[in-house]
Amino acid sequence: MPDAAVPVPLEVYRFAPGVDAAPTYRRYDLALTPHTPVLTALLKVRAELDPTLALRYSCRSAICGSCAMRINGKSRLACETPVGPELERHGRVVVEPMANQPVLRDLVVDQAPFWQEYERIEPHLKLDPRHPMPEGRPNPMTPAEVERFHDTPRCIACAACYSACPAVAADPAFPGPMALAKLYRFVVDPRDAARQDRLVRIQTEGLWLCLRCHLCTEACPKDVRPSERIRDLKEMAIAAQGPTEPGSRHAVGFASNVRERGTLQEAKLVRQTFGVLGMLPQVPQGIRIWRKKPEVTRRPGPIEGLDELERIYAAFEPKDGR
Amino acid sequence: MERHEVVVVGAGLAGQRAALAAVQAGRDVALLSKLHPLRSHSGAAQGGINAAVGAEDSVETHIFDTVKGSDYLGDQDAIEFFCREAGPTVVEMEHFGTIFSRADDGSLARRPFGGAHFPRTIYAADRTGLALLQALWERLGSETLTLYEEWDVTRLIVRDGRVQGLVALDRASGEFHEVAARAVVLATGPAGRVYAKTTNAHSCTGDGIAVAYDAGALLKDMEFVQFHPTALLESSILITEGARGEGGLLKNASGERFMVRYAPHVQELASRDVVSRAIVTEVREGRGFQGPFGGYVHLELMHLGKERVESRLTEICDYARRFAGIDPVTEPIPVYPAQHYMMGGIGTDLHGATNVRGLFAAGEAACVSIHGANRLGGNSLLETLVFGKQAGVAAAAYAAGAPAPELHSTDLDEATAPLRAWSSRSEGEDPSTLRTEMQRTMEECVGIYRDEASLMEGIRRIRALRQRAERIRVVDRSGVYNLNLTDALETTHMLELAEVIVVGAYARTESRGAHARTDYPKRDDARWMRHTLARRTPEGPALDYAPVAFTRFEPTERVY
C-alpha cells in the first residue's frame, strides 16, 4: 500500500532551439511517493512550478504512445516509469527528449523522420484483385494463423525503440525497429498479397543494417520485441529470395563456413559477403590485417569434434519445407 | 489560409471514418487533430465492438438490449439503423486489416458484455480500439488527404447560418490559421476531463463540443455521464468490462459477491450504471474496503487461471502490475467507479447533421442519440464507425452543393483576440488552478448520485469559475508547443461544458440511466421521456426539450 513521500530531485532538459544558445537542465525538487510515475511528476512541475515546460502526453496508461522520453538515459514511457526505482539506481531522475529526432522544444521532438520510415514500408494491406475479400463476411483465420501476428497491434508507435537504436543514429537508410516490426505484421498477414514484394524490397532497403543489439526490444514498453521480428524478416527474406544482399550473404556465409570448419574463415567470409569483385575495395584493409595478424587471413583447419557440430546443424536444418 | 471542401476535426475512429467516406465521395478532405491520429483516445478502448453475428443472436435482440440499456431515452429509429449496420461495419474493418481474436473455427471470437443477451462483443484481446485504430489509419494511408497534425481547433466560423471554416492553432509553430471549409465534421471525442476521476485521456477536453456550442449548435443530453464501474484505484485507469465478460467477479470487504443482490439475473454483467451505483452503495454503507485513496471493492480474476488472464486480458495485467503493483493472476484488483463516457454531445440526426448548416458531428462528441441515458459496453466503438461514416458521407454530399466559403480578412484577428489577450496579461488566473477546481466541483456536485442541493452548489461554483476564467492568464510567451496556452484553451472549453452538464442535471428531476437523483429516485416518463437541448446564451445554457423517437419498444421498468 502507498508509501510515504520522498524527496525527488528531477533534472529536466530545457531547450528552445533558435531562442536558447544551448540546452540546459533545470532542477525541480518534489516530494513524491516512490510509485509516482515520472509523467505525474512532470505534470506536477507544470501545474505548480513551471507551466512553460513542454512535453507530449495524453492517455497516462501506456496506450497512446505520446510520452516516450529518456529517463536516466533509457528511452521509456514517462507514464509507466515510477520514480522510486530510478532514485534507487541513480539518486536522481534525469529527463531528456528522445534521441534520433530533432528537438522542437524541451521534451518534445519532431517525429517526422520516425513517421516517414513508417510510411516507407507501405503500412497497409495490399490486395490481389484476383482474390477479392469474401463478400459480406470476414476472412476466415484460424487461431494458429492469428497467433503469428495477433500481438503486433500492441505497438503504440511511441518511438522508444527508434530513440534507443544505434543503427538509426548511424545510418539514415535504416528504417528503424518500429517500421520493421510493422512490416513483419503485413508480411505474415494471410490477407496481404504483397508478401514476396515486401520481402524482396526490404532486403535492399535497410533490413540488413540492423546491428542485432536488441536495444529496441529492451526499450519497447509493450513487449513487441522488434529485434525478434527483424530476425524473422531476415529469415523470411532469405527463404523468399535467397541471400542476395551483402547482409544476407554474410549471414548465410557465416553459417556455412562455421559448419565447414567449426570456426570462422575470415577471408572466405569477405568473399562470400561481397563477391569476388566486391572484395577489391576490401584489399587494402586485408593487407593491413595480413601484416599485423597473418593467421587471420589464412584458412583455418577444421576444429576437433566437427562431427558433433554437424549434428547440431542437422538438428536445426529446416524440415518438411519449413 | 488553408482551403478544403471538407475538414474533419479529430482523428480518432469517428474522424478517420468520416474522412475516409468524404475522400471516397471525391471531396478534397483535411483531417485536423491535436494528436497524431494513432495517439487518439479511441486506441484506449479495450473490450470490443458489438455485432449480432452469432447464430443464437439477432439484430432484433441487439436493438432491444440497446434500447433497454439506454433506459428508453435512445431514439429507436437511430438504434435500429445502428444495429443493422453493425455486421457490415465489423466485416469492413476486418477487410481493412483489423487483427481480431478468432474462435477455433476461424470466425471472429465473441465475448459476453454487460446488458447484452448473448456474447456479442467482437474483440482483439483487450486492445480492440487500438487494433481498429491502426487498421483504419493504415487503410486511410492509401487515400489522398491533408493531415494537420497537432492543431487545436479554437473557433468555428459561421456566417449566414452556414459554416465557412474554422480557426486552429498549430502547436509546433504557435501560429493561428484559418481553414476555409464548405463542411466541417467534429469528431473530437468527449470532455471526460471535466471530472477529477476519469478513465479518459488528458486530451479528452471536449474542444469540438465547445466550439460547436459557441457557434450555436445545440448540445443534447449532456447531463448523462457514464461512470465505469471498474477503474483502477488512484489512477482511474480503465479495467475493461471484458474482465467481467471473461468471468471476473466483484466482491466487497466480506468477500460477498454483492452484485447478486443488485442484479440477481446477470450479476456482474448488469448495465454499467447499475454496477457503478452498486459499488458506490457498498462503499457508502460500509461494506467496501477503505484505503488512503478512498473506498473500493475487489475485482477478482484469479479463478480464471494464469493462461486465460494473460492471453485475453494482456493489457489489464500490465496495467494492474505497472500502475497498481498488483498481479491479477494471484491478487484481486482494487477498483472504484470513475467517469468514463458522455452519452450527450452535439445534437445530430442520423446523418451526423447538426442544427448549423454545414456542421456535422460524430462519435463521442456527438449525440444521435443511440445511447440515451446509458451506453452499453461495445456500442461506442461501433458508433464511431457507423456514424463517422454517416457524417462523412453527408458532409461530402453537402459540400458538393454548398457555396464557396466566405472568410473575411478580420476573421482570424477576431477569433484569436481573446486568446492573445490571455498572453498579454501581467496578472490573472492560472489555467491549471481553474481546471483542478472545476474537476473537484464536478466530482463533488455532479457525480454518480446527485440531488438538488449538490447541483445548486455545482452551478454556483462552476459559474464562479467561469467568471474567473474571463481573466485567465498565459505566462508562457513562447510560440512553439505552448502547453500553457493549450491548457487555457482546453480549460475554457471544459468550463462551458461543465456548466451545461450541471444545469441539465439540475433541471432533470428524475432518475434515468446514468443520471441518478437521490431526491427523485424514479424514472418519470410522463415528464422526462425527452431529450435535453442546450443552446448557448450570454446568461448560460438555455434549455429546451425534444421528443424521443419510438418505433417498437414501449418503456418498461429496467431490471437486470
If you average the pLDDT of chain A, what whole number results?
93
Question: Biggest interface between protein chains, with counts per chain?
Answer: A-B, 57 and 66 residues
The gyration radius over C-alpha positions of chain B equals 22 Å
Helicity range of chain B = 25-40%
Total number of helices of chain A: 15
Order of helices and strands of chain A: EEHEEHEEEHHHHHHHHHHHHH
- CATH architecture of the largest domain in chain A, please? Orthogonal Bundle
Task: Give the number of helices of chain B.
Answer: 16
Mind describing the biggest β-sheet of chain B? 7 strands, mixed
Described by the principal axes of the CA atoms, the overall outline of chain A is globular
The major sheet of chain A is characterized as: 5 strands, mixed
In whole angstroms, the N-to-C terminal distance of chain B is 55 Å
Write up this protein.
- The complex is a heterodimer of chains A (322) and B (560).
- Chain A folds into 3 domains: 6-107, Ubiquitin-like (UB roll) (Roll); 112-133 and 141-241, Alpha-helical ferredoxin (Fumarate Reductase Iron-sulfur Protein, Chain B, domain 2, Orthogonal Bundle), CATH 1.10.1060.10; 247-315, no CATH class.
- Chain A has helices spanning 38-49, 83-90, 112-120, 143-147, 160-164, 166-170, 177-187, 195-204, 215-219, 226-241, 246-261, 266-278, 283-292, 294-297, 306-316; strands at 6-14, 24-32, 68-71, 74-77, 93-96, 103-105, 108-109.
- By secondary structure, chain A is an alpha+beta fold.
- In chain A, the strands form 2 sheets. Chain A has a 5-stranded mixed sheet with strand order 2-1-5-3-4. A two-stranded antiparallel sheet of chain A has the order 6-7.
- In chain A, helix 3 (112-120) runs parallel beside helix 7 (177-187) and helix 11 runs antiparallel to helix 12 (266-278).
- Chain A starts with 5 loop residues before the first strand and ends in a 6-residue tail after the last helix.
- Chain B is of the alpha/beta class and 560 residues long.
- Chain B is 36% helix and 20% strand.
- Chain B has helices at 13-24, 59-69, 76-96, 128-140, 207-214, 242-245, 259-262, 272-284, 306-312, 314-324, 379-401, 411-424, 431-445, 452-469, 483-507, 525-528, and strands at residues 2-9, 29-33, 49-50, 110-111, 121-122, 146-149, 151-159, 162-170, 175-186, 219-220, 225-232, 249-251, 289-291, 294-300, 333-342, 345-347, 359-361, 366-367, 449-450, 516-517, 530-537, 540-547.
- In chain B, the strands form 5 sheets. In chain B, strands 1, 2, 6, 7, 8, 9 and 17 form a 7-stranded mixed sheet that branches. In chain B, strands 18-16-10-21-22 form a 5-stranded mixed sheet.
- In chain B, helix 3 packs across helix 11, helix 13 runs antiparallel to helix 14 and helix 13 (431-445) packs parallel to helix 15.
- Chain B is globular, with a radius of gyration of 22 Å.
- The model of chain B has no long low-confidence stretch (mean pLDDT 96).
- Classes of the chains: A alpha+beta (322), B alpha/beta (560).
- The interface between A and B is large, with 57 and 66 residues.
